[in-house]
Amino acid sequence: MSSQLFAEGQCLTTYSCTLENWEVPCSLSYYWRLLGSNQDTLKAWNVQKNAHLCDHYYPACPRPELTLGVRKHADPLFLTVLMQDEIGGLQVLHENQWVDVPPIRGGFVVNIRNFLQLSEFLSFDTVSNDKFKSNKHRVLANRIGPRISVPCFLNGPVPSSKLYGLIKELISEGNPTPYREVQLDKYIAKFLSTGLDEYQGLDDYYRGKKILQGD
Ligand SMILES: O=C(O)CCC(=O)C(=O)O
Ligand SMILES: [Fe+2]
Question: Which family does it belong to (predicted)?
Fold first, then answer.
């Protein structure tokens, strides 16, 4: 029987309370501190305000070799905190190899998402950037199932035509960003209208490259 974790009554309630009390205030502040930015910018971007929980339900698959649970992708906005059940199947792309992310009871997976990578580009040199990058991941289909996972997406600002990218106090002449500013509504529209594994994320905003249609 799968998903014992989620069958234990209070699990989701506990999870969302934990996120509310711990994750949102702490983990984002932590990344923000690593950026060298102050908490006012974090508040100004409303990163902590716009989070949602999502349930993924992966039925048992009789021919897992023919398909995937979720195709390769990087999450688009700030941070994802994910609780997965004991079935497993999540993999992360590391040095061109797919590496299993085994479920750890009571543990969360934290994915850096593209927007946090963009912010990070504003504050560190290229070497540091490589350490603090949004990751590509996927989920394998499994004969055993169902598998359940519950990501909490910390989305940051509500999509609008406002431009994001430069954390002004972190920019200096010797530390320019390779990315143009991002208009969040266009960025999200492109994410939603593109196949997960075709989605180029921040590549569209890399300076010198042709950007979105109509830009
Ligand atoms: O189900 C999982 O473990 C990961 C799902 C995922 O990658 C996502 O929701 O963005
Ligand atoms: Fe994801």
Answer: Belongs to the iron/ascorbate-dependent oxidoreductase family.
